[in-house]
Amino acid sequence: MFGTGVRFGEALAVRWCDLNLTDEPLTVDGQEVPPQSVWINGNIVAVSGKGLVRHDGKTFRANRVIGLPDYLHTLLLVRKPLDAHESEPVFPSGTLGWHHPSNMQRSVRRMRERIEYPDFTTHVGRKTVATILDTSGQTAREIADQLGHANPAMPQNVYMGRGVQNPAAAAALHAAYNSKE
Predict the structure, then answer these.
(1) How far apart are CA 143 and CA 149, in angstroms?
(2) Domain presence at residue 3
(3) 43 close to 58: Cβ distance less than 8 angstroms
(4) What is the largest CA-CA distance in the chain?
(5) Does 54 map to a domain?
(6) pLDDT per position as a tens digit, 51-101
(7) Kindly report the CA angle at 100 between 123 and 149, in degrees rounded to 5?
(8) Residue-range definition of the domain harbouring residue 32
(9) What are phi and psi of 124, to 5 degrees?
């Protein structure tokens, strides 16, 4: 989540076939996945009476291809078992099936206590990615595409920095004041 900004359930739904860990483009179920990328095309949810369900995603925009940072690409290469079946989850449960979101949340709560970071949640990774992209100069549209939001106003209103110093504003106002127009 810290390397992509995906939602918690989206991370749990990634299968080995959704990852392109090679240096060549791949086509998976009609979707081209560029080298060193992941195709986010599902979400794991617990449905009463049915158990865990992998569905197509939270929204239409949730289905997207995301480039992997080099460190994450390397980590996934090292983590992939030699005998991994393409339809298996990248982050399997102890029985090699889908992880139950509640069980994973419990693990996160335990980790939060161990690291003494009381505000840590699974959403921190998503917020961190949005902040990094914002401070690197990416537009609200680009950040929305990365996070899987249909409307750029969502990351702009929720994730992007407010109250951050803008040194360029003073320079722009000074230039406008000094212009002859």
Answers:
(1) 8
(2) no
(3) yes
(4) 72
(5) yes
(6) 898 988 766 677 899 999 999 999 999 999 999 999 999 999 888 889 888
(7) 35
(8) 8-120
(9) -60, -40
Q: Determine, yes or no, domain membership for 97.
A: yes
Three-class SS of residue 37? strand
Q: What percentage of the chain has pLDDT greater than the value 90?
A: 39
Count of domains forming the chain: 1
Output the CA–CA distances (angstroms, integers) from residue 74 to 7, 36, 77, 96, in the order listed. 21, 9, 5, 22
Mean pLDDT computed over 102-128: 82
Choice between 10 and 128, residue whose per-residue pLDDT is larger: 10
Residue 120: per-residue pLDDT: 78
Q: What is the pTM of this model?
A: 0.80
Q: How many of the other CB atoms lie within 10 Å of CB of 76?
A: 18
Among 157, 135, 125, residue whose Cα is nearest residue 144: 157
Q: Which helix (H) or strand (E) holds 154?
A: helix 153-158
Q: CB of 58 within 8 A of CB of 48?
A: no
Those residues with Cβ within 8 angstroms of residue 145's Cβ, 6 or more apart along the chain or in another chain: 61, 64
Neighbours of 1 (CB within 10 A): 17
3-class state of residue 100 by DSSP: coil
Q: Answer yes or no: is 99 within a domain.
A: yes
